DNA sequence: AGAGATCATGCAACAGAAGTGCATTTAATG
DNA sequence: CATTAAATGCACTTCTGTTGCATGATCTCT
């Protein structure tokens, strides 16, 4: 049983061939990925399977979904210690308007916001847009 | 020349019948609207016209686009003094997970975030999700 | 090991949003 | 009024997300 298989197993996700491939693919990238990104990475991949795999991964706390403002859902592996399911790991995300890549800034948490009392805050999403490190130095 | 016509004219937007209707519709609501919302509000409206009207409104600083995490673009009228075009008016938005409505919290600005120097921040989007005032008291 | 149940995958099809091209209508200008 | 530019309507396309159902794979229990 490999490391990846153990990881999936720990999260009660059956480590099938496809799931292991998807997990490894996401682990190999340091940016968030869209469903289409995975689809393009594996010629022989079925969109629906990928879709449902990401759903499963998200439900089991293996990945978290990211709204980066492009209206295309992105996903990224949860870092060890990121307990999305329990009480939101409110780190922020950076979206590069040049290369269109989105990254997790896991060390940077969303500051607490004082809202009018009538609002009940349950979750928050903060995305900074601009130029990423790869695109700024060239 | 009515107030609305003057407003559009000031922003170099020709005040056509449809544009005036759309403007008034958005002004009558205190929530952000999606393209489909406008489409449903006017039986006889052409989706493309609405689409391009919103584009024009946005370019001319009459409305601003909102990414509330639903992957559906919303739009809201800019408040007087909101100069989105020049240097982003970084107020935050609230999205109610119960009634699915999104509102501008124009008084609440996005706090400044210290990023690693390699990132060049140009814009930011902060959405709080939870239960809105209408949905919390019942 | 074999039978039955459960879960994962593949295939097809659909819904909704976003966007484009082009013809036609409407409005501005001299 | 004639010319020109802008706005609208219509048709069509692309892309993302989503569901239903049949089939294939895996687990469980005897
Ligand atoms: Mn993240
Ligand atoms: Mn707003
Ligand atoms: Zn970049
Ligand atoms: Zn609500």
Automatic annotation (TrEMBL), chains A, B:
Keywords for the protein's UniProt record, in alphabetical order: Metal-binding, Zinc
Binding site for Zn(2+): 96, 99, 132, 135
Cofactor descriptive note: Binds 1 zinc ion per subunit.
UniProt xrefs under InterPro entries: FUR, WH-like_DNA-bd_sf, WH_DNA-bd_sf
Gene3D superfamilies: Winged helix-like DNA-binding domain superfamily/Winged helix DNA-binding domain (1.10.10.10)
Cofactor(s) recorded in Swiss-Prot or TrEMBL: Zn(2+)
GO molecular function: DNA-binding transcription factor activity; transcription cis-regulatory region binding; zinc ion binding
Gene Ontology terms describing biological process: negative regulation of DNA-templated transcription; regulation of secondary metabolite biosynthetic process
Protein name: Fur family ferric uptake transcriptional regulator
Lineage per the UniProt record: Bacteria, Pseudomonadati, Bacteroidota, Flavobacteriia, Flavobacteriales
């Amino acid at each position: 049983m490999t490391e990846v298989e153990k990881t999936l197993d720990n999260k009660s996700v059956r480590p099938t061939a496809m799931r292991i491939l998807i997990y490894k693919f996401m682990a190999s990238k340091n940016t968030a990925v869209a469903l289409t990104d995975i689809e393009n990475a594996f010629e022989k991949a079925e969109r629906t399977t990928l879709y449902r795999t990401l759903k499963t991964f998200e439900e089991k706390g293996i990945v978290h979904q990211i709204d980066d403002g492009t209206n295309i859902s992105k996903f990224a592996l949860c870092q060890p210690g990121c307990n999305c399911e329990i009480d939101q790991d409110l780190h922020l995300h950076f979206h590069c308007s040049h290369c269109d890549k989105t990254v997790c800034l896991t060390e940077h948490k969303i500051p607490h916001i004082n809202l009018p009392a009538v609002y009940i805050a349950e979750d928050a999403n903060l995305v900074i847009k601009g130029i990423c490190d790869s695109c700024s130095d060239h």
